[in-house]
Design goal:
RmlC_Cupin_sf; 175 residues; mainly beta; ChrR-like_cupin_dom; 12 strands
């Protein structure tokens, strides 16, 4: 609520508590980790690094790391996806554009596409925010499986347990 008090000092932090129901922030100083145990295997030569697994709203944010060329997956999104390429490049076979280092991609709801990494890319890392589900299909739309925030949490739990970080390690990313 506004007051007529003048700001005593621009660097004075907010003086009241946050709402008690507010969830804690997530701060990850080294989002691209040097500890390989933090990369969760998704497929051969494909990993993800969880950043936020939002179970209450059904989305996740992660880094996708690929160290192979060729088709990674074909999938459909019922909700929007945002991506920012940190390293390497990739494309969707259905489009003529390339997602290159420093580039941003908005994927509209309803689109089905086939992610391809070219042979000259040794490593691709892209930050993705995926809302809802990734529905994997064959070239003709037949369902082949899916991922959502809950399957991602399960993958993390299993992996972190296997590498000695404990299944509970994933809890820091869940909101």
């Amino acid at each position: 609520m506004p007051t007529d008090r003048a700001d005593p000092e621009p660097l004075t932090p907010y003086q009241y508590p946050n709402p008690p129901e507010a969830l804690p922030e997530i701060v990850i100083p080294n989002a691209i980790p040097t500890d390989e145990r933090l990369w969760v295997p998704q497929a051969e030569n494909v990993w993800f690094r969880p950043l936020c697994l939002n179970a209450s709203q059904g989305y996740w944010m992660n880094l996708l790391r690929v160290r192979k060329s060729g088709v990674l997956s074909r999938h459909r999104h019922p909700q929007a996806v945002h991506g920012f390429v940190l390293k390497g490049r990739w494309k969707y076979l259905e489009h003529d554009w390339w997602a290159e280092e420093g580039g941003y991609v908005f994927e509209p709801p309803g689109e089905t596409h086939t992610l391809y990494v070219p042979e000259d890319v040794q490593e691709m890392i892209t930050y993705f925010q995926v809302n809802g589900v990734m529905y994997y299909t064959d070239p003709y739309g037949k369902g082949m499986g899916y991922e959502d925030v809950f399957t991602k949490i399960d993958m993390c739990r299993k992996h972190f347990e296997e590498v000695g970080l404990s299944a509970d390690y994933v809890k820091q990313f869940i909101r």
